[in-house]
Amino acid sequence: DIVLTQSPGTLSLSPGERATLSCRASQRVSSSYLAWYQQTPGQAPRLLIYGASSRATGIPDRFSGSGSGTDFTLTISRLEPEDFAVYYCHQYGSSPRTFGQGTRLEIK
Amino acid sequence: EVQLVESGGVVVQPGGSLRLSCAASGFSFDEYNMHWVRQAPGKGLEWVSLIRWDDSGIYYADSVKGRFTISRDNNRNSLYLQMNSLIPADTGFYYCARADKWIHVTDHWGQGTLVTVSS
Q1: Contacts of residue A83, Cβ cutoff 8 Å, sequence gap at least 6
Q2: Which of A36, B2, B14, B79 would suit a FRET pair with B109, their CA atoms being 20 to 30 Å apart?
Q3: Residue A55 pLDDT more than 90?
Q4: Which residues of B touch A37 (CB under 8 A)?
Q5: Contact B47 A45 (CB under 8 A)
Q6: CA B49 to chain centre
Q7: What is the sign, positive or negative, of the torsion defined by CA atoms of A33, B114, A58, B31?
Q8: Around Cβ A10, how many Cβ atoms within 10 Å?
Q9: Span B4-52, pLDDT tens digits
């Protein structure tokens, strides 16, 4: 199984700042089948990025994804109040599909 | 508007059985692969099962293989998860999610239904 390790576990920033979240895979993620989800309390995960760098429909352009192989990054250029949430990376190129343990983005 | 509505979550004793349902609307259900993903309270996400749009492939996580059965009824726009031999570790929110059969990523999720396995 591909293990995804996200860092940091918790990120404390202020609105307007830039956030950089990391996801490292234990093996190469095939075809860059790497996605990022945002989850707020009591809600289902929301797809932000797929294919490592493609924004999902309706996602603001302050969200961007990059990386390939085993190292991937989600960047939020200027944090808005609604961006403080938990973020998960997810590989869907190999079975079983796996998720990272999550990064909690909290208001400083 | 894409809608996925799960139902069937209840409190059940260890060793018991449960059937979850997911009602889909707002898209062509028979053109999408469907997944179940679960989340223990306060924990991360765990993929459970996948059924392809035409029933041509069914896959399970090792943790549920032999105990859970995924199925779909394209005429009723519905997805199911039959859960047998339940254990406390199966406790959590169960989400159904759709995935484009070419892009493969799960792009819409339901709000989830809570399964609690406890005596």
Answers
A1: A19, A38, A76, A105
A2: B14
A3: yes
A4: 45
A5: no
A6: 7
A7: positive
A8: 10
A9: 999 999 999 999 999 999 999 999 999 999 999 999 999 999 999 999 9
Residue the block writes with tokens 């990376």: A89
> How far apart are the CA of B47 and the nearest CA of chain A, in angstroms?
6
Q: Give me the sheet containing A19-25, strands edge to edge.
A: A4-7, A19-25, A71-76, A63-68
Measured distance CA(A95)–CA(A1) in Å, rounded: 7
- CB of B33 within 8 Å of a chain A CB? The answer is no
Nearest CB to A47 within list B46, B95, B105:
B105
Torsion of CA B63, B94, B113, A10, to 10 degrees: 120
Distance from CA of A15 to the nearest CA of B (A): 25
- Is residue A31 over pLDDT 90? no
Span A68-91, pLDDT tens digits: 999 999 999 999 999 999 999 999
For residue A51, give the nearest of B103, B109, B100, B108 by alpha carbon.
B103
